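Q: Can someone sanity-check these two? First one:
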Amino acid sequence: AEYMGISFRFIMVFSRKQLACIGALWLLLCLLAPPTLADEDSQEEEHTGTNSRKMHSDDDDDEDEGILAEWEEHMQDFVPTDLLSFELASRTDELLFEEILTIPSKVRGAYFVSSGEEQDVDVTITDPYGKTIFHKSGAKEGIFYFTATTAGRYTFRFSNDRWLTNKQLTFAVSVGNQTTELLGSGHLNPVEESLNHIDRALREIQNEQTYMWSREKAHMHTVESVDRRVVVFSVIEAVAMVCITVWQVYYIKRLLDDRRIV
Protein backbone atom coordinates (compact mmCIF):
# COMPACT_ATOMS: atom_id res chain seq x y z
CA ALA A 1 0.00 0.00 0.00
CA GLU A 2 2.86 2.37 0.84
CA TYR A 3 4.49 1.56 -2.50
CA MET A 4 1.22 2.22 -4.34
CA GLY A 5 0.79 5.59 -2.55
CA ILE A 6 4.34 6.64 -3.47
CA SER A 7 3.74 5.63 -7.08
CA PHE A 8 0.46 7.55 -7.15
CA ARG A 9 2.11 10.72 -5.82
CA PHE A 10 4.93 10.35 -8.35
CA ILE A 11 2.39 10.04 -11.18
CA MET A 12 0.54 13.15 -9.90
CA VAL A 13 3.75 15.23 -9.76
CA PHE A 14 4.81 14.03 -13.17
CA SER A 15 1.40 14.89 -14.65
CA ARG A 16 1.46 18.42 -13.24
CA LYS A 17 4.94 18.99 -14.66
CA GLN A 18 3.74 17.66 -18.00
CA LEU A 19 0.81 20.06 -17.84
CA ALA A 20 3.14 22.99 -17.12
CA CYS A 21 5.37 22.07 -20.06
CA ILE A 22 2.37 21.80 -22.35
CA GLY A 23 1.15 25.23 -21.19
CA ALA A 24 4.57 26.80 -21.82
CA LEU A 25 4.76 25.23 -25.28
CA TRP A 26 1.26 26.49 -26.06
CA LEU A 27 2.20 30.06 -25.12
CA LEU A 28 5.34 29.82 -27.28
CA LEU A 29 3.32 28.53 -30.24
CA CYS A 30 0.80 31.37 -29.81
CA LEU A 31 3.61 33.91 -29.97
CA LEU A 32 5.28 32.32 -33.01
CA ALA A 33 2.14 31.30 -34.89
CA PRO A 34 1.42 33.08 -38.23
CA PRO A 35 -1.52 35.50 -38.35
CA THR A 36 -4.88 33.81 -38.60
CA LEU A 37 -7.75 34.67 -40.86
CA ALA A 38 -9.27 36.81 -38.11
CA ASP A 39 -6.02 38.76 -37.79
CA GLU A 40 -5.93 39.27 -41.56
CA ASP A 41 -9.53 40.50 -41.47
CA SER A 42 -8.64 42.88 -38.64
CA GLN A 43 -5.66 44.20 -40.59
CA GLU A 44 -7.83 44.60 -43.68
CA GLU A 45 -10.44 46.53 -41.65
CA GLU A 46 -7.71 48.74 -40.21
CA HIS A 47 -6.35 49.38 -43.71
CA THR A 48 -9.87 50.18 -44.93
CA GLY A 49 -10.37 52.57 -42.01
CA THR A 50 -7.08 54.28 -42.82
CA ASN A 51 -8.11 54.70 -46.45
CA SER A 52 -11.48 56.09 -45.34
CA ARG A 53 -9.81 58.62 -43.07
CA LYS A 54 -7.45 59.58 -45.91
CA MET A 55 -10.37 60.06 -48.31
CA HIS A 56 -12.18 62.14 -45.68
CA SER A 57 -9.08 64.29 -45.24
CA ASP A 58 -8.84 64.76 -49.01
CA ASP A 59 -12.49 65.83 -49.10
CA ASP A 60 -11.83 68.39 -46.35
CA ASP A 61 -8.85 69.75 -48.29
CA ASP A 62 -10.96 70.07 -51.46
CA GLU A 63 -13.69 71.84 -49.50
CA ASP A 64 -11.18 74.29 -48.00
CA GLU A 65 -9.75 75.02 -51.44
CA GLY A 66 -13.25 75.62 -52.80
CA ILE A 67 -14.06 78.05 -50.00
CA LEU A 68 -10.81 79.93 -50.54
CA ALA A 69 -11.47 80.23 -54.26
CA GLU A 70 -15.02 81.42 -53.60
CA TRP A 71 -13.73 83.95 -51.07
CA GLU A 72 -11.21 85.33 -53.55
CA GLU A 73 -13.96 85.74 -56.14
CA HIS A 74 -16.83 87.21 -54.12
CA MET A 75 -15.45 88.36 -50.73
CA GLN A 76 -12.25 90.17 -51.63
CA ASP A 77 -13.27 93.52 -50.07
CA PHE A 78 -15.52 92.04 -47.37
CA VAL A 79 -15.69 94.11 -44.16
CA PRO A 80 -18.36 92.82 -41.71
CA THR A 81 -20.76 95.25 -40.09
CA ASP A 82 -21.63 92.65 -37.42
CA LEU A 83 -19.32 90.03 -35.95
CA LEU A 84 -20.39 87.80 -33.09
CA SER A 85 -19.52 84.47 -31.51
CA PHE A 86 -22.01 82.33 -29.58
CA GLU A 87 -22.51 78.80 -28.27
CA LEU A 88 -24.89 76.57 -30.18
CA ALA A 89 -26.29 73.96 -27.80
CA SER A 90 -27.03 70.39 -28.85
CA ARG A 91 -30.34 69.70 -30.59
CA THR A 92 -31.20 73.41 -30.80
CA ASP A 93 -31.68 76.13 -33.42
CA GLU A 94 -30.38 79.68 -33.12
CA LEU A 95 -32.17 82.43 -35.04
CA LEU A 96 -30.62 85.76 -35.98
CA PHE A 97 -32.55 88.56 -37.68
CA GLU A 98 -31.45 91.41 -39.91
CA GLU A 99 -33.73 94.28 -40.91
CA ILE A 100 -33.01 95.47 -44.45
CA LEU A 101 -34.86 98.62 -45.43
CA THR A 102 -32.79 99.86 -48.36
CA ILE A 103 -33.09 97.80 -51.51
CA PRO A 104 -31.36 96.54 -53.43
CA SER A 105 -28.68 95.77 -50.83
CA LYS A 106 -25.72 93.47 -51.07
CA VAL A 107 -25.59 90.88 -48.26
CA ARG A 108 -22.42 88.92 -47.67
CA GLY A 109 -21.18 86.90 -44.73
CA ALA A 110 -19.30 83.92 -43.40
CA TYR A 111 -19.52 81.47 -40.50
CA PHE A 112 -17.36 78.76 -39.00
CA VAL A 113 -17.42 76.41 -36.01
CA SER A 114 -14.47 77.10 -33.73
CA SER A 115 -14.94 74.29 -31.19
CA GLY A 116 -16.86 71.07 -30.67
CA GLU A 117 -16.36 67.34 -31.22
CA GLU A 118 -18.45 67.28 -34.40
CA GLN A 119 -17.78 70.57 -36.19
CA ASP A 120 -20.74 70.67 -38.56
CA VAL A 121 -23.89 72.82 -38.57
CA ASP A 122 -26.86 73.46 -40.83
CA VAL A 123 -27.39 77.04 -42.03
CA THR A 124 -30.52 78.41 -43.69
CA ILE A 125 -31.25 82.00 -44.76
CA THR A 126 -34.81 83.06 -45.62
CA ASP A 127 -36.31 86.32 -46.88
CA PRO A 128 -39.24 88.18 -45.27
CA TYR A 129 -41.70 85.89 -47.08
CA GLY A 130 -40.04 82.70 -45.83
CA LYS A 131 -38.39 81.81 -49.13
CA THR A 132 -35.06 80.03 -48.76
CA ILE A 133 -32.19 82.07 -50.19
CA PHE A 134 -29.27 80.02 -48.91
CA HIS A 135 -28.96 76.57 -47.36
CA LYS A 136 -25.92 74.48 -46.45
CA SER A 137 -25.86 71.43 -44.21
CA GLY A 138 -23.14 69.32 -42.59
CA ALA A 139 -20.34 71.88 -42.95
CA LYS A 140 -18.03 73.41 -40.35
CA GLU A 141 -17.64 76.67 -42.29
CA GLY A 142 -19.08 78.50 -45.27
CA ILE A 143 -19.73 81.82 -46.96
CA PHE A 144 -22.87 83.31 -48.47
CA TYR A 145 -23.64 86.28 -50.71
CA PHE A 146 -26.83 87.53 -52.33
CA THR A 147 -28.65 90.72 -53.23
CA ALA A 148 -31.67 91.58 -51.10
CA THR A 149 -34.50 92.75 -53.35
CA THR A 150 -37.26 92.73 -50.72
CA ALA A 151 -37.37 95.08 -47.74
CA GLY A 152 -38.04 93.46 -44.40
CA ARG A 153 -36.64 91.02 -41.86
CA TYR A 154 -34.23 88.35 -43.07
CA THR A 155 -33.71 85.26 -40.90
CA PHE A 156 -30.44 83.39 -40.35
CA ARG A 157 -31.04 79.95 -38.82
CA PHE A 158 -28.19 77.86 -37.37
CA SER A 159 -29.05 74.26 -36.43
CA ASN A 160 -27.10 71.76 -34.32
CA ASP A 161 -28.58 68.28 -34.75
CA ARG A 162 -25.93 66.48 -32.68
CA TRP A 163 -26.70 64.91 -29.30
CA LEU A 164 -24.68 66.06 -26.25
CA THR A 165 -22.36 68.22 -28.36
CA ASN A 166 -22.25 71.99 -27.93
CA LYS A 167 -20.51 74.08 -30.56
CA GLN A 168 -18.93 77.51 -30.56
CA LEU A 169 -19.89 79.35 -33.72
CA THR A 170 -18.59 82.62 -35.14
CA PHE A 171 -20.76 84.61 -37.55
CA ALA A 172 -19.94 87.71 -39.60
CA VAL A 173 -22.26 89.59 -41.95
CA SER A 174 -22.16 92.75 -44.03
CA VAL A 175 -25.35 94.43 -45.26
CA GLY A 176 -25.53 97.27 -47.75
CA ASN A 177 -23.08 98.85 -50.15
CA GLN A 178 -19.70 99.89 -48.87
CA THR A 179 -19.03 103.54 -48.15
CA THR A 180 -16.34 103.62 -50.79
CA GLU A 181 -18.95 102.56 -53.35
CA LEU A 182 -21.36 105.38 -52.42
CA LEU A 183 -18.77 108.15 -52.24
CA GLY A 184 -16.76 109.21 -55.22
CA SER A 185 -13.17 110.33 -55.15
CA GLY A 186 -14.24 113.93 -55.75
CA HIS A 187 -16.15 114.04 -52.44
CA LEU A 188 -13.11 113.28 -50.31
CA ASN A 189 -9.92 115.20 -49.86
CA PRO A 190 -6.58 113.30 -49.69
CA VAL A 191 -6.53 113.25 -45.87
CA GLU A 192 -9.98 111.74 -45.61
CA GLU A 193 -9.12 109.21 -48.28
CA SER A 194 -6.01 108.20 -46.37
CA LEU A 195 -7.95 107.89 -43.09
CA ASN A 196 -10.64 105.84 -44.78
CA HIS A 197 -8.02 103.53 -46.28
CA ILE A 198 -6.29 103.10 -42.90
CA ASP A 199 -9.59 102.41 -41.15
CA ARG A 200 -10.54 99.81 -43.73
CA ALA A 201 -7.14 98.11 -43.51
CA LEU A 202 -7.30 98.00 -39.69
CA ARG A 203 -10.77 96.46 -39.75
CA GLU A 204 -9.64 93.82 -42.21
CA ILE A 205 -6.62 93.02 -40.01
CA GLN A 206 -8.82 92.78 -36.92
CA ASN A 207 -11.29 90.44 -38.63
CA GLU A 208 -8.47 88.30 -40.00
CA GLN A 209 -6.86 88.05 -36.55
CA THR A 210 -10.19 87.09 -34.98
CA TYR A 211 -10.71 84.38 -37.58
CA MET A 212 -7.17 83.02 -37.21
CA TRP A 213 -7.49 83.00 -33.40
CA SER A 214 -10.74 81.05 -33.57
CA ARG A 215 -9.25 78.51 -35.99
CA GLU A 216 -6.16 78.11 -33.81
CA LYS A 217 -8.36 77.56 -30.77
CA ALA A 218 -10.36 74.90 -32.61
CA HIS A 219 -7.19 73.09 -33.72
CA MET A 220 -5.73 73.18 -30.20
CA HIS A 221 -8.97 71.77 -28.80
CA THR A 222 -8.84 68.90 -31.30
CA VAL A 223 -5.17 68.14 -30.53
CA GLU A 224 -5.78 68.16 -26.77
CA SER A 225 -8.78 65.86 -27.12
CA VAL A 226 -6.80 63.34 -29.21
CA ASP A 227 -3.86 63.55 -26.79
CA ARG A 228 -6.09 62.78 -23.81
CA ARG A 229 -7.58 59.76 -25.57
CA VAL A 230 -4.15 58.42 -26.50
CA VAL A 231 -2.90 58.77 -22.91
CA VAL A 232 -5.94 57.02 -21.45
CA PHE A 233 -5.70 54.19 -23.98
CA SER A 234 -1.96 53.75 -23.31
CA VAL A 235 -2.50 53.58 -19.54
CA ILE A 236 -5.30 51.03 -19.92
CA GLU A 237 -3.16 48.94 -22.29
CA ALA A 238 -0.15 49.02 -19.93
CA VAL A 239 -2.27 48.01 -16.91
CA ALA A 240 -3.85 45.18 -18.88
CA MET A 241 -0.43 43.88 -20.01
CA VAL A 242 0.93 43.97 -16.44
CA CYS A 243 -2.09 42.14 -15.08
CA ILE A 244 -1.90 39.43 -17.74
CA THR A 245 1.85 38.98 -17.18
CA VAL A 246 1.46 38.68 -13.39
CA TRP A 247 -1.35 36.20 -13.79
CA GLN A 248 0.61 34.04 -16.25
CA VAL A 249 3.70 34.00 -13.98
CA TYR A 250 1.61 33.11 -10.95
CA TYR A 251 -0.29 30.40 -12.79
CA ILE A 252 2.81 28.72 -14.26
CA LYS A 253 4.67 28.95 -10.92
CA ARG A 254 1.76 27.31 -9.15
CA LEU A 255 1.79 24.49 -11.69
CA LEU A 256 5.55 23.92 -11.34
CA ASP A 257 5.80 24.37 -7.57
CA ASP A 258 4.93 21.16 -5.68
CA ARG A 259 5.80 21.47 -1.98
CA ARG A 260 3.99 18.41 -0.66
CA ILE A 261 6.09 16.11 1.48
CA VAL A 262 6.35 12.57 0.14
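And here is the second, same format, sequence then C-alpha coordinates:
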Amino acid sequence: MKFAIALVLALASSASAFSFGGRGRGGIRRSIRKNPFKGGSKGGNFGNFGGNGQPPINNNGGLNADAAGDGDKKDDDGSGLWAAYNAKLESDPLLTKALTSLVGFTLGDILAQKFVEKKDEYDFIRTLRLASFGFLIHGPTGHWFYGKLDGAIPGKGALQVASKVGIDQVLWNPIFGVMFFGFMGFSSGENFGGVVSKIKRDLMTQVTGSWTVWPAAHAINFRFVPTSQRLLYINTIQIFYNVFLSIIGNKE
Protein backbone atom coordinates (compact mmCIF):
# COMPACT_ATOMS: atom_id res chain seq x y z
CA MET A 1 0.00 0.00 0.00
CA LYS A 2 2.81 2.42 0.89
CA PHE A 3 4.57 1.52 -2.34
CA ALA A 4 1.45 2.19 -4.43
CA ILE A 5 0.81 5.59 -2.80
CA ALA A 6 4.47 6.56 -3.13
CA LEU A 7 4.37 5.61 -6.82
CA VAL A 8 1.24 7.69 -7.41
CA LEU A 9 2.88 10.69 -5.69
CA ALA A 10 6.05 10.33 -7.74
CA LEU A 11 4.08 10.15 -11.00
CA ALA A 12 1.82 13.05 -9.99
CA SER A 13 4.75 15.26 -9.04
CA SER A 14 6.52 14.47 -12.31
CA ALA A 15 3.39 15.18 -14.33
CA SER A 16 2.76 18.46 -12.50
CA ALA A 17 6.35 19.58 -13.06
CA PHE A 18 5.93 19.09 -16.81
CA SER A 19 2.75 21.16 -16.93
CA PHE A 20 0.45 18.14 -17.29
CA GLY A 21 -3.28 18.82 -17.30
CA GLY A 22 -3.31 22.23 -18.96
CA ARG A 23 -1.21 24.19 -16.50
CA GLY A 24 0.53 25.99 -19.35
CA ARG A 25 4.02 27.45 -19.40
CA GLY A 26 3.71 28.56 -15.80
CA GLY A 27 2.94 25.01 -14.66
CA ILE A 28 6.37 24.36 -13.15
CA ARG A 29 6.30 27.58 -11.15
CA ARG A 30 2.80 26.87 -9.86
CA SER A 31 3.63 23.25 -9.01
CA ILE A 32 6.54 24.53 -6.93
CA ARG A 33 4.29 26.98 -5.12
CA LYS A 34 1.87 24.13 -4.37
CA ASN A 35 4.59 21.89 -2.95
CA PRO A 36 2.81 19.82 -0.27
CA PHE A 37 6.00 19.76 1.78
CA LYS A 38 5.76 23.51 2.27
CA GLY A 39 3.76 24.76 5.20
CA GLY A 40 0.83 27.13 5.03
CA SER A 41 -2.72 27.52 6.17
CA LYS A 42 -4.17 25.42 3.35
CA GLY A 43 -1.65 22.61 3.11
CA GLY A 44 -1.08 22.38 6.84
CA ASN A 45 2.31 21.95 8.48
CA PHE A 46 3.09 18.85 6.46
CA GLY A 47 6.15 16.96 7.55
CA ASN A 48 6.58 19.46 10.42
CA PHE A 49 8.19 22.11 8.21
CA GLY A 50 7.55 25.77 8.71
CA GLY A 51 6.08 28.16 6.18
CA ASN A 52 9.50 28.94 4.71
CA GLY A 53 10.27 25.24 4.22
CA GLN A 54 12.61 25.14 7.21
CA PRO A 55 12.25 22.99 10.36
CA PRO A 56 10.38 24.95 13.08
CA ILE A 57 12.46 26.36 15.89
CA ASN A 58 11.25 26.31 19.47
CA ASN A 59 11.59 29.16 21.95
CA ASN A 60 14.92 27.82 23.16
CA GLY A 61 16.43 28.03 19.68
CA GLY A 62 16.36 24.26 19.05
CA LEU A 63 14.41 22.06 16.71
CA ASN A 64 10.93 21.04 17.79
CA ALA A 65 10.56 17.38 18.77
CA ASP A 66 8.62 16.54 15.60
CA ALA A 67 11.34 17.96 13.36
CA ALA A 68 14.11 16.45 15.46
CA GLY A 69 12.94 12.85 15.29
CA ASP A 70 9.20 12.27 15.38
CA GLY A 71 9.01 12.99 11.65
CA ASP A 72 10.92 9.80 10.99
CA LYS A 73 8.31 7.86 12.94
CA LYS A 74 5.56 9.46 10.85
CA ASP A 75 7.33 8.40 7.68
CA ASP A 76 7.77 4.89 9.06
CA ASP A 77 4.07 4.45 9.80
CA GLY A 78 3.01 5.90 6.45
CA SER A 79 1.30 9.04 7.79
CA GLY A 80 3.66 11.26 5.81
CA LEU A 81 2.73 9.54 2.55
CA TRP A 82 -0.96 9.68 3.44
CA ALA A 83 -0.78 13.43 4.13
CA ALA A 84 1.08 14.01 0.86
CA TYR A 85 -1.48 11.94 -1.06
CA ASN A 86 -4.36 13.94 0.40
CA ALA A 87 -2.56 17.18 -0.44
CA LYS A 88 -2.26 15.98 -4.05
CA LEU A 89 -5.94 15.03 -4.09
CA GLU A 90 -6.77 18.59 -3.09
CA SER A 91 -4.44 20.31 -5.57
CA ASP A 92 -4.80 17.90 -8.55
CA PRO A 93 -7.80 15.61 -7.94
CA LEU A 94 -8.34 14.39 -11.50
CA LEU A 95 -4.67 13.67 -12.20
CA THR A 96 -4.15 11.99 -8.83
CA LYS A 97 -7.16 9.71 -9.27
CA ALA A 98 -6.16 8.86 -12.84
CA LEU A 99 -2.68 7.89 -11.65
CA THR A 100 -4.16 5.92 -8.75
CA SER A 101 -6.15 3.85 -11.24
CA LEU A 102 -3.09 3.47 -13.46
CA VAL A 103 -1.15 1.94 -10.57
CA GLY A 104 -4.10 -0.25 -9.52
CA PHE A 105 -4.63 -1.75 -12.97
CA THR A 106 -0.90 -2.21 -13.49
CA LEU A 107 -0.48 -4.14 -10.23
CA GLY A 108 -3.61 -6.19 -10.97
CA ASP A 109 -2.27 -7.36 -14.33
CA ILE A 110 1.17 -8.13 -12.89
CA LEU A 111 -0.48 -10.36 -10.29
CA ALA A 112 -2.67 -11.98 -12.96
CA GLN A 113 0.21 -12.80 -15.29
CA LYS A 114 2.78 -13.80 -12.69
CA PHE A 115 0.75 -15.66 -10.08
CA VAL A 116 -2.57 -16.72 -11.63
CA GLU A 117 -1.94 -17.43 -15.30
CA LYS A 118 1.80 -18.00 -14.67
CA LYS A 119 2.76 -17.06 -18.20
CA ASP A 120 6.12 -18.22 -19.51
CA GLU A 121 6.64 -14.88 -21.25
CA TYR A 122 5.39 -11.68 -19.65
CA ASP A 123 3.12 -9.58 -21.91
CA PHE A 124 4.19 -5.96 -21.31
CA ILE A 125 1.87 -4.61 -24.01
CA ARG A 126 -1.12 -6.11 -22.21
CA THR A 127 -0.06 -4.43 -18.97
CA LEU A 128 0.36 -1.15 -20.85
CA ARG A 129 -3.17 -1.44 -22.25
CA LEU A 130 -4.63 -2.05 -18.79
CA ALA A 131 -2.58 0.76 -17.25
CA SER A 132 -3.78 3.06 -20.03
CA PHE A 133 -7.38 2.09 -19.35
CA GLY A 134 -6.92 2.92 -15.67
CA PHE A 135 -5.35 6.29 -16.43
CA LEU A 136 -7.53 7.40 -19.36
CA ILE A 137 -10.91 5.84 -18.53
CA HIS A 138 -11.28 4.39 -15.03
CA GLY A 139 -9.75 7.26 -13.07
CA PRO A 140 -11.44 10.18 -14.88
CA THR A 141 -14.86 8.53 -15.22
CA GLY A 142 -14.75 7.35 -11.60
CA HIS A 143 -13.87 10.88 -10.48
CA TRP A 144 -16.89 12.21 -12.38
CA PHE A 145 -19.37 9.45 -11.51
CA TYR A 146 -18.76 9.22 -7.76
CA GLY A 147 -18.66 12.99 -7.43
CA LYS A 148 -22.04 13.24 -9.17
CA LEU A 149 -23.46 10.33 -7.20
CA ASP A 150 -22.48 11.83 -3.84
CA GLY A 151 -23.83 15.20 -4.94
CA ALA A 152 -27.17 13.72 -6.02
CA ILE A 153 -27.58 11.51 -2.93
CA PRO A 154 -25.88 13.25 0.00
CA GLY A 155 -25.59 11.57 3.38
CA LYS A 156 -24.37 8.27 4.77
CA GLY A 157 -27.53 6.76 6.20
CA ALA A 158 -28.70 3.25 5.37
CA LEU A 159 -31.14 4.40 2.67
CA GLN A 160 -28.57 6.63 0.97
CA VAL A 161 -25.89 3.92 1.06
CA ALA A 162 -28.27 1.27 -0.32
CA SER A 163 -29.37 3.64 -3.10
CA LYS A 164 -25.78 4.40 -4.12
CA VAL A 165 -24.81 0.72 -4.11
CA GLY A 166 -27.86 -0.11 -6.25
CA ILE A 167 -27.13 2.64 -8.79
CA ASP A 168 -23.46 1.66 -8.93
CA GLN A 169 -24.13 -2.01 -9.53
CA VAL A 170 -27.23 -1.82 -11.73
CA LEU A 171 -26.35 1.25 -13.81
CA TRP A 172 -22.63 2.00 -13.62
CA ASN A 173 -21.39 -1.60 -13.52
CA PRO A 174 -22.54 -2.54 -17.07
CA ILE A 175 -21.49 0.89 -18.41
CA PHE A 176 -18.05 0.27 -16.96
CA GLY A 177 -17.99 -3.18 -18.57
CA VAL A 178 -18.76 -1.76 -22.01
CA MET A 179 -16.01 0.85 -21.60
CA PHE A 180 -13.55 -1.79 -20.42
CA PHE A 181 -14.16 -4.34 -23.17
CA GLY A 182 -14.39 -1.60 -25.78
CA PHE A 183 -11.08 -0.03 -24.77
CA MET A 184 -9.29 -3.35 -24.47
CA GLY A 185 -10.64 -4.54 -27.83
CA PHE A 186 -9.87 -1.44 -29.86
CA SER A 187 -6.45 -0.95 -28.23
CA SER A 188 -5.50 -4.51 -29.20
CA GLY A 189 -6.51 -3.98 -32.83
CA GLU A 190 -9.97 -5.54 -32.85
CA ASN A 191 -12.48 -4.19 -35.37
CA PHE A 192 -15.89 -2.89 -34.35
CA GLY A 193 -17.64 -6.21 -34.96
CA GLY A 194 -15.09 -8.09 -32.87
CA VAL A 195 -15.49 -5.66 -29.98
CA VAL A 196 -19.28 -5.95 -30.08
CA SER A 197 -19.02 -9.75 -30.07
CA LYS A 198 -16.66 -9.61 -27.08
CA ILE A 199 -19.08 -7.39 -25.16
CA LYS A 200 -22.03 -9.66 -25.93
CA ARG A 201 -20.06 -12.74 -24.89
CA ASP A 202 -18.38 -11.52 -21.70
CA LEU A 203 -20.30 -8.53 -20.32
CA MET A 204 -22.64 -10.56 -18.12
CA THR A 205 -19.70 -12.55 -16.74
CA GLN A 206 -18.08 -9.27 -15.71
CA VAL A 207 -21.30 -7.84 -14.27
CA THR A 208 -22.20 -10.92 -12.22
CA GLY A 209 -18.58 -11.30 -11.12
CA SER A 210 -18.76 -7.74 -9.83
CA TRP A 211 -21.82 -8.62 -7.77
CA THR A 212 -19.77 -11.09 -5.73
CA VAL A 213 -17.37 -8.35 -4.57
CA TRP A 214 -18.61 -4.81 -4.93
CA PRO A 215 -21.99 -4.57 -3.14
CA ALA A 216 -20.37 -5.26 0.25
CA ALA A 217 -17.26 -3.26 -0.65
CA HIS A 218 -19.31 -0.27 -1.74
CA ALA A 219 -21.52 -0.44 1.34
CA ILE A 220 -18.34 0.27 3.33
CA ASN A 221 -17.21 2.78 0.70
CA PHE A 222 -20.36 4.91 0.72
CA ARG A 223 -20.76 4.70 4.50
CA PHE A 224 -17.25 5.52 5.67
CA VAL A 225 -14.99 6.76 2.85
CA PRO A 226 -14.85 10.48 1.86
CA THR A 227 -15.69 11.25 -1.77
CA SER A 228 -12.15 12.39 -2.58
CA GLN A 229 -10.70 9.06 -1.42
CA ARG A 230 -13.21 6.71 -3.06
CA LEU A 231 -10.98 5.79 -5.99
CA LEU A 232 -8.06 5.00 -3.71
CA TYR A 233 -10.30 2.68 -1.68
CA ILE A 234 -11.75 1.16 -4.87
CA ASN A 235 -8.32 0.64 -6.41
CA THR A 236 -7.00 -0.96 -3.23
CA ILE A 237 -9.68 -3.64 -3.53
CA GLN A 238 -9.59 -3.57 -7.31
CA ILE A 239 -5.94 -4.59 -7.44
CA PHE A 240 -7.22 -8.09 -6.72
CA TYR A 241 -10.47 -7.70 -8.68
CA ASN A 242 -8.37 -6.51 -11.61
CA VAL A 243 -6.79 -9.96 -11.70
CA PHE A 244 -10.23 -11.23 -12.74
CA LEU A 245 -10.76 -8.30 -15.16
CA SER A 246 -7.32 -8.78 -16.68
CA ILE A 247 -7.96 -12.45 -17.38
CA ILE A 248 -11.47 -12.02 -18.76
CA GLY A 249 -10.52 -8.90 -20.70
CA ASN A 250 -7.71 -10.71 -22.50
CA LYS A 251 -9.56 -14.00 -23.04
CA GLU A 252 -9.60 -15.04 -26.67
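A (reply): Looked at the second one. The two ends are 32 Å apart (CA to CA). The chain is about 70% helix and 0% strand.
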